[in-house]
């Protein structure tokens, strides 16, 4: 790595001073800087962390009324990430999404334009605010069948149809690293005098290196939530909310953040946010050199294993197809298809088996057998996440695992020849991914959300196979990625019912469901 700049990490430095002073603790937390475990070998790992697990005492500031080191740390974060003001979040992007919705939607019945394939925290924010959501249909990438984000035309049409909407909320990039430039979308929102709100949980690193996509803030978004722990180097649950421009009520935002975050925030978590920003400031673009090199090494090595391919924008796929021999008919015809996105995070490897032997869950299990732990999988893809922390050794390990899988697991019992793999892939590409809700028009009618519970007498339990046409009475969330397949009050289509069955068969994990086996779901009784 190249030279390191001399930069400041105010909270980290304050916590180091706190620990070195060795003062007697007569304040919370009860573990007293970890000394309760001083004779316990089992606790050695956490005891070091506990030595800086402090609270709002003199010299350590207060997250909810920052005046000193926390204020300075947040100001440095704003400068680093291109915001006017930045806030540390110790409850992940979840609390950021809740706070920005509660800031923009202040009256029950306020209308918010929301892309449908959003994280469950967005739907929870709608419930807490009592807002009405106009759901926007995301663009579908026809090569992969994956949902990305609504087009600018869709957003303009929805803004025209609902001129009293309080804002537009998008999620970009998606879990697969797919996205597009938001400049035109931001201009459309501002022309309609509403803020563009972006859940950029998977894009905290965007805009920090020339080889990375541009950030939502640089495109003009008004408020952006980023999971600093996902693609940068903060501890899990460490995130940030960034704001710019006059369209977000800053005082109200601070009040909402105080509502949804703990009044006893974790100092190790906040220090990790300070440190993550410090690392970027200290090393600049060089912070990403080793990680990007590891990702490139994996891509190049994968060329020797044509069975496994990576998801990529159509234009990029076309260029690579021309330079590669033996490419399948499906990819040769890619130029005729519509791509739902134009940027791909170079750190996100979305891998699939072109032979169709291993579905995404099966490939994930095989990789885990060889000590490679993916981020997530769906019916077809496995998401493998590289970051600025990844090394060439990581890339080599992953490639060796795929070599073993390729050698150990051959064709299905139909004994197809390799040249038939392209036709199999063409069939798979037309099978849209599970995480999409793609049966809707460009935008929905307003959907009222609230906290009123559904009375048991209003519900009944039906087999998933018989649920098509019924109204869901519970939220159905495959996790990861945490994007609800259904929300309470949404009609179960035949396609969704089939997807639930398929996911259950493949061993997907679920949140929010009453029947963890996913053999049945709760629906509203017929009137």
TrEMBL record:
This is Aminotransferase class I/II-fold pyridoxal phosphate-dependent enzyme. One of its GO terms (molecular function) is transaminase activity. Residues 10-392 form the Orn/Lys/Arg decarboxylases family 1 pyridoxal-P attachment site domain. Pfam families: OKR_DC_1 (PF01276), OKR_DC_1_C (PF03711). Belongs to the Orn/Lys/Arg decarboxylase class-I family. It comes from the Bacteria. Its cofactor is pyridoxal 5'-phosphate. The keyword Lyase applies. It comes from Paenibacillus ottowii. Gene3D superfamilies: Molybdopterin biosynthesis moea protein, domain 2 (3.90.105.10), Type I PLP-dependent aspartate aminotransferase-like (Major domain) (3.40.640.10). Keywords: Aminotransferase, Decarboxylase, Lyase, Pyridoxal phosphate, Transferase.
């Amino acid at each position: 790595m190249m030279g390191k700049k001399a930069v400041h990490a105010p909270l980290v430095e304050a916590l180091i001073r706190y620990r070195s002073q060795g003062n007697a603790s007569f304040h919370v937390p009860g573990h007293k800087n970890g000394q309760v475990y001083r004779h316990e070998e089992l606790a050695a790992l956490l005891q070091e962390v506990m030595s800086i697990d402090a609270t709002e005492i003199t010299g350590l500031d207060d997250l909810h009324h920052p005046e000193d080191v926390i204020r300075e740390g947040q100001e440095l974060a704003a400068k680093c990430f291109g915001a006017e003001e930045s806030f540390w979040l110790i409850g992940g992007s979840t609390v950021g999404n809740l706070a920005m919705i509660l800031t923009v939607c202040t009256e029950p019945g306020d209308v918010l334009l929301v892309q449908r394939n959003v994280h469950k925290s967005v739907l929870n924010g709608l419930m807490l605010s009592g807002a009405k959501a106009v759901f926007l249909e995301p663009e579908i990438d026809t090569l992969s069948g994956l949902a990305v984000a609504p087009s600018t035309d869709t957003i303009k049409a929805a803004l025209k149809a609902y001129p009293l909407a309080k804002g537009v909320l998008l999620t970009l990039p998606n879990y697969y690293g797919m996205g597009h430039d938001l400049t035109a979308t931001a201009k459309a929102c501002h022309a309609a005098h509403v803020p563009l709100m972006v859940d950029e949980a998977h894009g905290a690193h965007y805009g920090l290196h020339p080889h990375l996509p541009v950030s939502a803030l640089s495109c003009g978004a008004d408020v952006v939530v980023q999971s600093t722990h996902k693609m940068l180097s903060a501890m899990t649950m460490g995130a940030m909310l960034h704001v710019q421009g006059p369209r977000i009520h800053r005082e109200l935002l601070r009040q909402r953040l105080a509502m949804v975050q703990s009044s006893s925030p974790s100092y190790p978590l906040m220090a990790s946010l300070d440190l993550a920003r410090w690392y970027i400031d200290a090393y600049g673009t060089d912070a990403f050199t080793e990680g990007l090199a590891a990702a490139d090494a994996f891509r190049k090595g994968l060329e020797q294993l044509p069975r496994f391919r990576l998801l990529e924008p159509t234009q990029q796929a076309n260029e690579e197809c021309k330079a590669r021999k033996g490419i399948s008919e499906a990819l040769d015809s890619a130029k005729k298809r519509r791509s739902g996105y134009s940027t791909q995070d170079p750190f996100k490897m979305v891998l699939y088996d072109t032979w169709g032997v291993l579905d995404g869950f099966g490939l994930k299990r095989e990789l885990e057998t060889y000590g490679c732990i993916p981020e997530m999988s769906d019916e077809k893809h496995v998401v493998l996440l590289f970051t600025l922390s990844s090394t060439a050794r990581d890339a080599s390990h992953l490639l060796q695992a795929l070599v073993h899988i390729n050698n150990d697991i051959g064709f299905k019992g139909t004994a197809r020849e390799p040249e038939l793999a392209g036709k199999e892939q063409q069939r798979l590409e037309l099978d849209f991914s599970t995480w999409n809700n793609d049966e809707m028009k460009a935008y929905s009618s307003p959907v009222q959300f609230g906290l009123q519970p559904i009375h048991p007498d209003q519900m009944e339990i039906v087999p998933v196979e018989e649920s098509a046409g019924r109204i869901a009475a519970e939220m159905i969330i495959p996790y990861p990625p945490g994007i609800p397949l259904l929300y309470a009050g949404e009609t179960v289509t035949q396609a969704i019912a089939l997807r639930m069955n398929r996911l259950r068969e493949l061993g997907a994990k679920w949140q929010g469901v009453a029947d963890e086996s996913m053999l049945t779901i709760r629906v509203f009784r017929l009137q």
